[in-house]
Amino acid sequence: MVETPSVKRESGEADGVTQPKIGVLALQGDFIEHIQMFERLGIEAVEVRKPSQLAELDGLVIPGGESTTIVRLINLFGFADELRSFVDRGAALWGTCAGMIVIARELTDSYPEPLGLIDICVSRNWFGRQVDSFEEPLQFDGIEGGPFLAVFIRAPIVESIGDEVEVLARVGDGIPVAVRSGNLLSTAFHPELTEDSRVHEYFVEMARERISARPQK
Ligand code: GLN
Known about the structure:
The protein is α/β, with parallel strands linked by helices. The chain has five helices and 14 strands. It has a single domain (13-213), classed as Rossmann fold. The longest helix is centred in the last third of the chain and has 12 residues, at 198-209. 42% of the residues are buried. Bound molecules: glutamine.
């Protein structure tokens, strides 16, 4: 295999800026779209299929898809404890849509059993009763350049948040749909399905802040 000269992954340096190592959980869902979005930003993102891969990463995305399936596969492949250690060592974790459900502390629904990584209570398929999918421009705290066009597909919402959790974006009459708690980010919508890479850039910055947490070799 031939190395692409412009990709300077060995040193972790590109254009003088240290690039975080990002992974996307590739068990189910729209992981390819996330990978493509990071690549557009010049960040190499790897498909994560084994828990041992987490040790190398500064950031991980759990994508949209079907949360019951993703939780089942997380447990089947032994990811749950490794994900807890990943968060405990300060690496950045971002759950989008089904990923938001997977990492929540609690659901209003009876299944799946979420991992309890971020202190939020989430309701699945919240908009499903009215309309399955829609787009809405949202004000997103921490992102400059005007509203972000959020794509909602059978999306959850955040019903309640713990003291440490900050709401970054709301929809409708103030329903939280993007939240952050330290190294954890959670969005009910799908930034990877737009042309707008600003939420991915925001997450890369979170992961970059945590590079020092990477185990030294
Ligand atoms: N409704 C799905 C679930 O509950 C999530 C949908 C999505 O990720 N777009 O898992």
